[in-house]
Amino acid sequence: MTVIGWFQIILYCAIVVALVKPLGWYMTRVFNGEATFLSPVLRPVERGLYWISGVDERREQHWLTYTVSMLLFHVGGFLIIYGLMRLQGLLPFNPAGQSAVAEDLSFNTAISFITNTNWQNYGGESTLSYLVQMVGLTHQNFLSAATGIALAVALIRGFSRSSMRTIGNFWVDVTRCTLYVLLPICIVYTLFLVWQGMPQTLGAYVDATTLEGAKQTIAVGPVASQVAIKMLGTNGGGFFNANAAHPFENPTALSNFVQMISIFALGAALTNVFGRMVGNERQGWAILAVMGVLFVAGVAITYWAEANGTSTLASLGLTGGNMEGKEVRFGIVASSLFAVITTAASCGAVNAMHDSFTALGGMIPLINMQLGEIIVGGVGAGMYGMLLFVVLAIFVAGLMVGRTPEYVGKKIEAREVKMAMLAILVLPLMYLGWTAVAVVLPSAVASMANAGPHGFTEVLYAFTSATGNNGSAFGGLTGNTFFYNLTLASSMFVGRFFMIVPAMAIAGSLAGKKSVPPSAGTFPTTGGLFVGLVVGVILIIGGLTFFPALALGPIVEHLSMNANTLF
Amino acid sequence: MLREIRPAILVLLLLTAITGLAYPLAMTAIAGVIFPKQAQGSLIEKDGKVIGSALIGQEFKDDKYFHGRLSATSAPDPADPSKTVPAPYNAANSGGSNLGPTSKALADRIKEDVEKLKTENPSVPVPVDLVTTSGSGLDPDISPEGALFQVPRVAKARNLPEARVRELVMEHTQGRMAGLLGEPRVNVLALNLALDEASK
């Protein structure tokens, strides 16, 4: 670890925190339906869109209608991606002549993109046409991100409203989020990325003759426009196989730094939206503090582990950390930081190969996802995931002092706690359950690239990433098989929707409750005690759930490595 | 609930048209005008022929060139398309080795390479980036230590004084951005082009 390395980490945190307030202010205005500086341009587009689609923007929806709208929207999105992938050989914008994608891989990819996972069983430049990359993937990057934010805002309205039956209008929330938040940022961001060296062309792959006379086919494409929303919307699905490690998908140290900021920007700002909407910004800062504590701890461990390297490197006298699977322009610190950010949020873009991280360095990304990606989290998804843990922590605090628990003026009762538990428990059921199945099926075990405990970690990481809708991978695992395509798709589906539906049920039931003013007996939820309590609940619930699985994977591997046992 | 079906179809189609077609196509057009070179992939031409991209590494095996990092990319086996064969610096199929810290295959590979490099230049320690594969398999850079390590070999193969080659390495070393972000590095292709120029 170096001083300059820590400087980069501190600078990163400072910029993210500095963006929270302005972005939170802007997003609050957008979701309250107020005018913004972009309204003169965008408002006519917005109104035209409602007029054609038959949306009455003043009509709000009950939580069930809101949820059903969201589900219908996803069915349509699924059909578009699946159809395009199956038919891409017949469609335009296909200079590389990619042929139809197989049924199971198309199914997996369609589920993957509507759930904001962007698991890469497909190999970007070697499988997909430009049309699929743009219409199939870029558009769903926008819409799954907009959906996540809309749902988080709906849940926040549940907390902030008093005795109301409705939680907003899904169509309005998604449209406004896309037009006013995501699209304008992406337009500026795309140009920045092209300036840094990212291709943005519809031209065919380039054939070059190298200095030594060999032939090199260089894949290009409309990369920058997709990468902008891939990062901002915490989607993470790469244009290229190697994702953000590919020099075209992340050309410079500056593009890397800005990409890292854009992963956290909107998710962190949502804590401020929450604070503003419930009428006390300090409530939002308290939640951000919980996230911050967990984040910094994760960064410190991964950075330390990667800078230390492996026993193999040490025995050969190699210094400079574990550079296997990392790029020179990022080095140890920017690779470690990126890995923690991308898994704390549900982004899943990678600028180094997590499979080649040290045992402990790779364990932190795994833990981040198993905690439910609540450290900032996916845009929206992290916020509602974190609020579920807050509900639980408040409930535990209520039990300790023997009072009905309250949070931001709402009584937390049996229904909310049951729904929160349902959402939190369904995640380990998927990733632990499918991992257990996979490691006893010989055909599934054959997909592992590494032997010993590392192979087990590859499988555990895959199902954790899918369930958490992250999409990063221990990439050695051959995931493009019938078994993994289907089981991973089911993990992504359950991980997304079995979390969303209970969260919306909580939103509906909270919105219907009266707000009670704080009294002398109300547990203050803006101080250090509250932050400590939530961190504790997250670690205890998380630890009890997945510690045994970690012991079989990264922990055993770390001990083996120290004993110089290789597999 | 039924009245949500119309918006479900139309909002989806309209937003798809905006974000999936209008947005990428407009960005392609604008980027092509403002940053034409980058938008095409930062291609380098020599005598009218494309010899590569400034951002994409390429394979160098000859002693007279600086070598880049190891690359784990592959290509379909011409004999059996269901299998793959190693194809370093395949810029149409990026990827890393994905070998873990306790992999015997990785340990053996690194050991062999370290021994080979030690015979080439016993005077300085082997830099770690010369014996590890990059994440993309297309890393265009090596560390300044990685370049300096190769100076004696390149100078000998080209009959140039070592000081001259070292000077070229220094000229092509890029520092951290604003002295803070990223790591110091040397673009291998740019350095080799300069080397060819200097040997003329």
TrEMBL record, chain A:
* Keywords from the UniProt entry: Cell membrane, Hydrolase, Ion transport, Membrane, Potassium, Potassium transport, Transmembrane, Transmembrane helix, Transport
Subunit structure, as described in the record: The system is composed of three essential subunits: KdpA, KdpB and KdpC.
**Where is this chain's protein located in or outside the cell?**
Cell membrane
Q: Which InterPro entries match?
A: KdpA (IPR004623)
Task: Locate the transmembrane regions by residue number.
Answer: 6-26, 63-85, 137-156, 177-195, 257-274, 286-305, 330-350, 357-376, 382-401, 422-445, 482-507, 528-551
| Main function | Part of the high-affinity ATP-driven potassium transport (or Kdp) system, which catalyzes the hydrolysis of ATP coupled with the electrogenic transport of potassium into the cytoplasm. This subunit binds the extracellular potassium ions and delivers the ions to the membrane domain of KdpB through an intramembrane tunnel.
CC per GO annotation: plasma membrane
What is the primary gene name for this protein?
kdpA
Drop me one GO molecular function for this one: hydrolase activity
Q: In which domain of life is the source organism classified?
A: Bacteria
HAMAP family, per database record: KdpA
Q: Can you say what this protein is called?
A: Potassium-transporting ATPase potassium-binding subunit
Give the way it sits in the membrane. Multi-pass membrane protein
Name the family. Answer: Belongs to the KdpA family.
Pfam families attached to this UniProt entry: KdpA
**Known NCBIfam families for this protein?**
kdpA (TIGR00680)
UniProtKB/TrEMBL annotation, chain B:
Topology in the lipid bilayer: Single-pass membrane protein
TM ranges? none
Q: Does the keyword Ion transport apply?
A: yes
Q: Which UniProt keywords apply?
A: ATP-binding, Cell membrane, Ion transport, Membrane, Nucleotide-binding, Potassium, Potassium transport, Transmembrane, Transmembrane helix, Transport
Predominantly, its location class is membrane
| Recorded GO CC terms | plasma membrane
Renumbered to this chain, region (Disordered) spans 69-103
Please list the coiled coil stretches. none
Polar residues bias locations:
91-101
On whether Transport is a keyword of this UniProt record, the answer is yes
Q: Where in the cell is it found?
A: Cell membrane
Please give one Gene Ontology molecular function term for this protein.
Answer: P-type potassium transmembrane transporter activity
Signal peptide bounds: none
Which NCBIfam families does the entry link to? kdpC, PRK00315.1, PRK13999.1
Quaternary form?
The system is composed of three essential subunits: KdpA, KdpB and KdpC.
Family matches, as PANTHER family? POTASSIUM-TRANSPORTING ATPASE C CHAIN (PTHR30042), POTASSIUM-TRANSPORTING ATPASE KDPC SUBUNIT (PTHR30042:SF2)
The UniProt function text for this chain reads: Part of the high-affinity ATP-driven potassium transport (or Kdp) system, which catalyzes the hydrolysis of ATP coupled with the electrogenic transport of potassium into the cytoplasm. This subunit acts as a catalytic chaperone that increases the ATP-binding affinity of the ATP-hydrolyzing subunit KdpB by the formation of a transient KdpB/KdpC/ATP ternary complex.
* Family to which this protein belongs: Belongs to the KdpC family.
Name of the protein: Potassium-transporting ATPase KdpC subunit
